Amino acid sequence: MAEALTRATGAARAAAGRRAHYRRRYWAFALPAAAIVLAVIVFPWLFTLYMSVHEWEPSGGALFMGLGNYLKLAADARFAWAILRTLYFAALAVAAPVILGVAAALAFNERFPLRGLARTVFILPMMATPVAIALVWSMMFHPQLGVLNYLLSALGLPPASWTYSADTVIPTLALVETWQWTPLVMLIVLGGLASLPRDPYEAALLDGAGAWQTFRHITLPLIWPFIVVAGVIRTIDALKSFDVIYVITQGGPGTASETINIFLYQQAFAYYHLGYAGAVTVVFFILIIAVSLVLLAMRQRAKWQ
Description:
By secondary structure, the protein is mainly alpha-helical. It contains twelve helices and two strands, in the order H-E-E-H-H-H-H-H-H-H-H-H-H-H. It has two domains: 1-43; 78-301, Orthogonal Bundle (MetI-like fold), CATH 1.10.3720. Helix 11 (260-270) packs antiparallel against helix 12. The mean pLDDT is 87.
């Protein structure tokens, strides 16, 4: 009896020693990751919150403002218009690529000669850097020297103002985003189409269903979760879009294409209103969280079939 008790006690101590050893190894791996997260994510956000309640002088001094920057932001009509332009741009830059990407996925899912080559050519735009794309499109949008107005004149159509008019600048910038990111949506939806079962289509064929009925009642419900995922990714990208807009228009003409990111850049690096820019960052983050919650709710309703 005593010998069994001794063995049990020894086994318990050995197990406790192993657990302590594993805990030490766990912290050896977890602490560097935690330190990186604190340094890269947590500290910048805490410092941004600190900046947002201060007014920073060019000499480096900071004056405590409390909620002053936020109250000023609430009364800033320019910031309100920046929010509306951001949402307008995001709506166009999400809807068009999703619709065209789904159509392209349906087309590339069919078998035809040189399909692999056509897919490769189609996805080339999203491989280019945004700044290079913006420089090329800005030359194409030139009212006198741009190739787009030349093509319009060759078709007998009047020239367009493109990015040089306040009425057309946001749709034009969304056109660039559509050209670049439609291939991404196509790839996501094409992956969904490749995984669909064949049984429902064979049953629909036997029942005499047409192409539109098959798409409406079988294909679309099955690929809807993939479309939602593509929409979420595009929404996040569109909300944080900066480089293409800044290179092509710098927020112009006037402030017609000044989205929140451009407004934030101007406040921080053109006017050196660092505390005010910090408040813009915090409000923009809250806006993104709100939009993300809506998208997550949509994603939860898109059940995988």
